[in-house]
Amino acid sequence: MRLALPDHWVWDSWMTDDGTDYHLFFLRASRALQDRERRHYRAAIGHATSRDGEQWTLTADAVAASDAPAFDDLATWTGSVVRDTGGRWSMFYTGVSRAENGLVQRIGRATSSDLVTWTKDPDLVLEADGRWYERLGEGTWPDEAWRDPYVFEHAGRWHMLITARANSGDPEGRAVVGHATSKDLSHWHIHPPLSTPAGFGEMEVLQAHTVNGKPVLVFSCAPKNTSVHAGHQAGTWIAEGQSPLGPWKITEAANIDTADLYAVQMRRTRDGNWTTWGFDNGDGPQFGTISSSSYVPFTGTDSSTTTP
């Protein structure tokens, strides 16, 4: 699997399968910005499709920033896509606004019947609840973390895992697994976090999976944002747990060598196998491209993956 655009950087990505085509959604921003750090506040959500997971066809962007004023009138960031029992697709995504100079993150939804044309839901905007989660200015972190919604169904209810930070503890290690639930994907209830601070400054692009009978939590954290777990070079982490909702052994999380790939994702393919992929976050010319990773937990670290 590989996606490289000559005129855009691409980074965080997520995928769904309609039974015929694979649909890859990803953050993208113009290389004309020159400084790659400027890309975050210029991000839109791109879209590509593939029959085999190898050859990708770029389509129109799925979601872009709204007109001001709106919670997402500056940029749109990472999310996930699910399908309800009626066949409607929902994309939950992160938005940042001009009003707070992009420093406060919120979660919204867009819906689609075909995964191509998306309509934003004006009535759904989720914010961090200060009873449990750190708000802007309450710690030393530069922004208010409430992003990367990962939505899945478990035990008859929809669950959302969220990149968040606790409102107490060492400010340098407050990252927790934020949690919200819904019966219908339209009305959400925010709950206390599913974890306690474990020395990570942030736990990005969270996912929960059960691989060969073992529940795992996969997340990303750059080495510079975890002083407690110093000495590691890779940004991919995996923690075993008791269920898809935890508890997980985050203090014992394994640092996985995925080379320069970051925001690594996992997905089970149609043939029942697992595959992983991420974007190149190194200093070389491949930065801003998406490609497969060879790591699949509990099936051998040398398992090559060629499909999404």
Please give a structural write-up.
- By secondary structure, the chain is mainly β.
- It has a domain at 81-293: Tachylectin-2, Chain A, CATH 2.115.10.20.
- Helices cover 0% and strands 44% of the residues.
- The protein has no helices and 20 strands.
- The protein has strands spanning 2-3, 8-17, 22-30, 44-50, 57-58, 75-83, 89-96, 105-112, 119-126, 146-154, 157-165, 175-182, 188-191, 204-211, 214-220, 236-240, 254-256, 261-268, 274-280, 290-293.
- Strands 1-20-19-18 form a four-stranded antiparallel beta sheet, with no helix packed on it.
- It is globular.
- Mean pLDDT is 93; it is low at 300-308.
- Pfam families: Glyco_hydro_32N.
- GO terms for molecular function: hydrolase activity.
- Residues 21-279 form the Glycosyl hydrolase family 32 N-terminal domain.
Distance between the termini: 7 Å
Please identify which CATH superfamily of the domain at 81-293 we are dealing with. Answer: Glycosyl hydrolase domain, family 43
Number of E strands: 20
- Major sheet: arrangement of strands: 1-20-19-18
Radius of gyration: 18 Å
Q: Structural class of the secondary elements?
A: mainly beta
Domain Glycosyl hydrolase family 32 N-terminal: 21-279
Keywords: Glycosidase, Hydrolase
GO molecular function: hydrolase activity
Organism: Rhodococcus aetherivorans
